[in-house]
From TrEMBL:
This is Ribonuclease J 1. Keywords: Exonuclease, Hydrolase, Metal-binding, Nuclease, RNA-binding, Zinc. It comes from the Bacteria. InterPro entries: Metallo-B-lactamas, RibonucZ/Hydroxyglut_hydro, RMMBL, RNase_J_2, RNase_J_b_CASP.
Amino acid sequence: MDLLMPTRSDLWFLPLGGTGEIGMNLNLYGHDGQWLMVDCGVSFNEPIDENSARTYELVCADPDFIVQQRHRLAGIVITHAHEDHVGALPFLWRRFQVPVYTTPFTAEILRRKLAQVGLLGEVEIHELPMGSQFSVGVFNLQWITLTHSIPEPSGLMIETPAGNVFHTGDWKIDHSPVIGEKFSPAVLSTLRKRDVKAMVCDSTNALKKGHSVSEYDCYKALLDVIKDEQGRVVVGCFSSNIARLVSLGYVAKETGRYLALLGRSLQNMVSAARVAGYWPDDLPVIDPSHLGYLPADEVLAVATGSQGEPRAMLNRLARDDCFDLSLQKGDVVLFSAMIIPGNEDAIERLVTSFKAQGVRTIQGHDTVLPIHVSGHPYEDELASMYDWVRPEVAIPTHGEPEHMAANARIAKAAHVPRQLTGLNGDLFTLAPEIGVRKNAIKAKRIAIAR
């Protein structure tokens, strides 16, 4: 393998995962003989070879390029606690054996993951508050507080003598995010004074016009839907969306229901949110074993499995195989989550199973109310971000090719001088020359065995 090594005059961006796809983010920045890794995530139920139909439960970017020069890896920075940004780290860390830098909530999630694989206490974790400035090897870094669908989403300002990069991570503009700090344009506007050579930017919703909907508006929509229900209500949503879970806690309180969590990942996330101070003290959560003793109109349960996963709690409820709760005619299952492409058939089978029991289902397309909102920026938000930061180069990432092409068009319309698009394995050179070296390394995937 060609072991590329950046010199003192070089500033490089090399994505191994997450560019040309949504998921399994693994990014490398190179300068002065060192590499910085930003995020280390997984994807679910995907093949490792585009020519193969066989899928694997957990898939991540092949890290062999950086493992071969581990002595040059200065450290690993994790921008937030979503699985596609942190999920591979517990399984790959032994190959790197370098310190990890992240924010307090993400550190809490990471410690729990490390404990599951017997690594708790072995990994050097630097827990850095929001907004912190810190150094990792030759890289001077700063958290830039953003908003997203999980606590403590942080962009990363990367400064080197060869140039500066703003790595957005996942974000949206949300002025009413339910938990955490509100989005602050003022902070972003200060970056234009810091000579940002390139902005590496989330492209997930670049094809969507307008502006994403606030998490608070989702809370109001959930309240509107649930307040008139007479039967049991079960909500399927992503366990990492703590703001959505807090919203459901308030919905339960305002509608005279009791909130319970069905599924270990939900219970673990809420436990971590309590430890990190993100779960309100006035929102009780009952033990799921108590649900069977409650009148139907006092039950509000949140369940795992919104993507139709066969072993998750929504599927168990559909099979009447949940020990703590049985659904009956007149009850409703509400999907407060996006449909991840590829999961359409599994979700439809799940909906059909509920309907066969006389259990109603409500999905996003069944109502005009925003019962789910995205955590990623739409076109207008991307344009605003480019205007605030004013980078010399836009590098779209975190998207399939059509999403990244749309992001590049938005950047061009926002008067960003250069736009560079590429795929995993392409080397983006930002100094001393600006360009893209296609297929600089062979980007591959590997399956992770739990």
